[in-house]
Amino acid sequence: MALAPVLLLSLVLHAFIGWRVAPDLATVNMALGTSLWVALLISALLVPLGLLARIVAKPPLSEWLTWLGLLCMGLFSSLLVLTVLRELLLALAWLVDAASPGSVSLAHLHTETALALPILALLATALGFWNARRTAAVVQVDVPIANLPETLQGFTVAQISDIHVGPTIKTRYVQRIVDRVNGLQANMVAITGDLVDGSVNELGHHIQPLSQLSSTHGTFFVTGNHEYYSGAHSWITALRSLGVRVLMNEHVLIHHSTDTQDPEPAVVVVAGVADYNAHYFDKSHRSDPQKALEGAPEHAVFKLLLAHQPRSAEAASQAGFDLQLSGHTHGGQFWPWNHFVRLQQPFTAGLHKLRDLWVYTSRGTGYWGPPKRFGAPSEITQLRLVRA
């Protein structure tokens, strides 16, 4: 990614905000208008530097630039969205005033909205920062399964997804997640992709806490798109060295019993596919739910698929799975982007049904890019199978 075009785009978009808001602030106090222009200029420079910090600088400067740039990006996003909404509001007020002269105080509306805009953006960014940096809360989800055998009644899966270990998410953040997951005492742990944003050499030591994940039947992982941006083959090897079972268009069988003396435990198929777009990076990794189920015994009472992107659901339904666990969307991460996720993915967040297939889409356990979550809190999901 070249710095010049990113910087130019950043300057243009920040200038748009200043052009539309600063003059109205200046009518209240000239210093307010000037201060906004200064803040926007600093942000316009820091946003691209934050994205490219590891290229243009070395630690610890690169880490500081990354943090500052990503914080500015989160604030800028809210400023830009609010500026566009303000323009729509002012245009509507102008139409109303044109139809009924004097019914709306346009000058007053310009001033009040200009004052409110940076305050609202700062509040959204501060709350979003707190939501992003706290340890994800546990979300309890019951999945009703027809003809579920008594042995699997209450079987639990702890799902974590989209942690995005990288410039601002490191060992301590991951350790807090692991500690909370272990407290659930789940029957199995599923990691549904986008664990990392960087190479094994850079970040390998930051995922070490995953080796501590504890459950009855172990931890299972599938690749997300960001693993392929970061060297998927190296990460697959690194995760396997931690005792995590990586599923690449394949399945394993779990023999689960609530009683160690039970002579006939329930057979559960746990399958996993590579990311939906993995074949663009490695043709041998083409995502294939049907292949992942090949050879599974007919007497298996429950078939679970781990697939990073929700849009694997159509193929998963045709293959005959009962439940698909996905991530990728972050639930939109912060408003209003949650409304645009559905343009690419069939499900944004939560539990949905596609014919006989249940699909649960996690909002993610970490965050990507700006340390900001607003209207889409992070989650550690505890899914429990219950008889329908």
Would you mind describing this structure in some detail?
Helices cover 42% and strands 17% of the residues. With 388 residues, it is an alpha/beta fold. The strands form two sheets. Strands 1-12-2-3-4-5 form a six-stranded mixed beta sheet, with helices on one face. A six-stranded mixed beta sheet has the order 6-7-8-9-11-10. Helix 1 (3-28) runs antiparallel to helix 2 (30-51), helix 1 (3-28) packs across helix 5 and helix 4 (61-99) packs antiparallel against helix 5. It is elongated and about 80 Å long.
Notable traits:
388 residues; alpha/beta; six-stranded mixed β-sheet; 11 helices; 12 strands
Secondary structure layout:
Elements lengths: L2 H26 L1 H22 L1 H4 L4 H39 L6 H28 L3 E9 L10 E5 L10 H12 L5 E4 L8 H4 L15 E3 L3 H5 L2 H10 L3 E2 L3 E7 L9 E7 L16 H5 L8 E5 L6 H7 L3 E4 L23 E5 L2 E5 L17 E9 L1
Parallel strand pairs: 1-12, 2-3, 3-4, 4-5, 7-8, 8-9, 9-11
Antiparallel strand pairs: 2-12, 6-7, 10-11
Question: What can be said about this structure in brief?
Answer:
42% of the residues lie in helices and 17% in strands. The protein contains eleven helices and twelve strands. The chain has helices at 3-28, 30-51, 53-56, 61-99, 106-133, 171-182, 200-203, 225-229, 232-241, 289-293, 313-319; strands spanning 137-145, 156-160, 188-191, 219-221, 245-246, 250-256, 266-272, 302-306, 323-326, 350-354, 357-361, 379-387.
